[in-house]
Amino acid sequence: MSEGSTREIENLIGEVRGLRETLKTDCDRIQGDLAGYAELRQGVTQLTANISDSASSFGAAPRRLITRRREAPSLRQEPPAPLPFAESISETGPKRDL
Predict the structure, then answer these.
(1) Which pTM does this prediction carry?
(2) Predicted local distance difference test score (pLDDT) of residue 66
(3) Burial 80-97 (b: 16+ CB within 10 A, else e)
């Protein structure tokens, strides 16, 4: 085997080792990320269950409020009468005697 071929093979072996190390590092990072996501998912599931339990205990209250809103008289009223001094105020501000 020639010296050039031997160097080329050694270079390729070095590149493969570098790629192997990169893959190992990426694999470790991904496994850590997956563990973090699993923990997050478990926390979200527990939080959702807590919210669901809390909401079910308050389930009757919102229904009563909805019923009361439907039965409530209209809150719309006639606009209030203008104040007596409002006539002296124009769109640009109060009238001033100069």
Answers:
(1) 0.46
(2) 57
(3) eeeeeeeeeeeeeeeeee
